[in-house]
């Protein structure tokens, strides 16, 4: 924790160092700029996409997806069903976190 009287701002302790690290903030990504690897696409469940689309209509997107940068595009790390639900709803953009991730 920060010393009394100090406001650390939008930071939190890191898991290994306990040093203060910036918190991730959601960004808005163009859906057309997000690439979904073929291996990940195979896990798509249409019933799950429909259920999430209904939830998004009722409550909005509650959990942003995760992507990593790959040149001019982004590669999906987490959130296939949320991404596909937004596509089904005709959305052009989606909230997500840009993360540092290794290629598989």
Give structural notes.
By secondary structure, the protein is an alpha/beta fold. The protein has one domain (24-98): Alpha-Beta Complex (Conserved hypothetical protein from pyrococcus furiosus pfu- 392566-001, ParB domain), CATH 3.90.1530. Helix content is 26%, strand content 29%. The protein has helices spanning 38-41, 46-59, 80-88, and strands spanning 11-13, 20-22, 27-30, 34-35, 65-70, 73-78, 93-98. Strand 5 (65-70) and strand 6 (73-78) form a beta hairpin. Helix 2 packs across helix 3. The longest helix is centred in the middle third of the chain and has 14 residues, at 46-59. It is globular, with a radius of gyration of 17 Å. The N and C termini lie far apart (35 Å). Residues 1-11 have low confidence and may be disordered.
Number of DSSP helical runs: 3
Mean pLDDT: 84
CATH 2nd-level architecture: Alpha-Beta Complex
Q: What Rg, in angstroms, do the CA atoms define?
A: 17 Å
Number of domains: 1
Strand sequence of the main sheet, in spatial order? 3-7-5-6-4
Q: What fraction, in percent, of the residue positions are helical?
A: 25-40%
From the spread of the alpha carbons, the general shape counts as globular
Beta-strand residue percentage: 25-35%
CATH class call:
Alpha Beta
What structural class results from the helix and strand content?
A: alpha/beta
Most strands sheet = 5 strands, mixed
Stretches with pLDDT under 50, minimum 5 residues: 1-11
CATH-defined fold name: Conserved hypothetical protein from pyrococcus furiosus pfu- 392566-001, ParB domain
- End-to-end separation in angstroms reads 35 Å
